[in-house]
Design brief:
Largest sheet: 5 strands, mixed
Radius of gyration: 24 Å
Strand order of the largest sheet: 2-1-3-4-5
Distance between the termini: 95 Å
Order of helices and strands: HHHHHHEEHEHEEH
CATH class of the largest domain: Alpha Beta
CATH architecture of the largest domain: 3-Layer(aba) Sandwich
Structural class: alpha+beta
Shape: elongated
Length: 241
């Protein structure tokens, strides 16, 4: 009679153990989160919950690990588009879920329960909008419409894409400010390059907007450039006049 042998636990990477549903309940990412909280999960497990299902013999965790093993940080992943995930075996629908999750994270600082913050410095602007703009791969130009006490009345995205004078025109930039009877404005945009230094075109556009603001009686208090974790302020540099 052959000796009794203990059954070996199957390895998750084994071809006979390819679905998360076959894993012990305590090791499945979703169940693990429910039992122990999100802080107990690895980055791969958190991404796997968003990816939801595996593909071509890989579990959702395997796909998440491949994504992280490519040298991309979470910040890099946050700037990806739904189609960027296809190279890792993650379809556009699942890629869209990941993009949506990171977009909600970007919007979190502007949903802090204070819909009408007061801007007293460029740091206040960055605190409110830095997370939303710093990791974008394209440029976005925003206008902040302010009250007489520099309280936010409304923010308006003027354009998305390459910043140039033909797209950022005083007509579009001041349209909502006039409609809302704003007492002042702050402009801001991002530099995907990570360099916060104003370009010559940035300077020219800002001077044009500042002059238009003087004519309309809606002063431009600042133009803030957000670039990764750094920023620059036209007001602090004396570049508004």
């Amino acid at each position: 009679m052959s000796p009794v042998r203990k059954a070996k636990r199957r390895n998750h990477s084994s071809p006979f153990y390819t679905t998360i549903k076959e894993w012990p309940v305590g090791e499945r990412p979703r169940e693990k989160m429910i039992q122990h909280g999100s802080a107990a999960l690895t980055e791969a497990e958190l991404l796997a919950i968003l990816i939801r299902t595996g593909a071509k013999g890989n579990t959702a965790v395997d796909l998440a690990k491949k994504l992280l093993a490519s040298g991309r940080t979470l910040r890099d992943i946050a700037s990806m588009t739904p189609t960027d995930f296809k190279q890792f075996g993650i379809g556009q629908a699942r890629g869209a879920a990941i993009v949506a999750a990171f977009e909600l994270m970007r919007r979190l600082p502007s949903s802090d329960g204070n819909p009408k913050p007061t801007f007293r410095s460029p740091e206040d602007v960055v605190s409110r909008y830095g997370a939303r703009l710093r990791d974008l791969k394209h440029e976005e130009f925003w206008a902040l419409l302010l009250s007489s006490s520099n309280q936010l009345v409304r923010d308006v995205r003027i354009t998305s894409g390459t910043l140039n004078a033909s797209l950022v025109h005083p007509r579009e930039c001041f349209h909502d400010a006039i409609k809302e009877k704003a007492a002042g404005m702050i402009f801001l945009h991002n530099h995907p390059s990570g360099n916060p230094e104003p370009s010559p075109e940035d300077v020219a556009i800002t001077k044009q907007l500042a002059e238009a603001g003087k004519i309309l009686g809606i002063p431009v208090h600042d133009h803030v450039i957000i670039a990764g974790d750094r920023f620059s302020s036209f007001a602090e540099r004396g570049l508004l006049s």
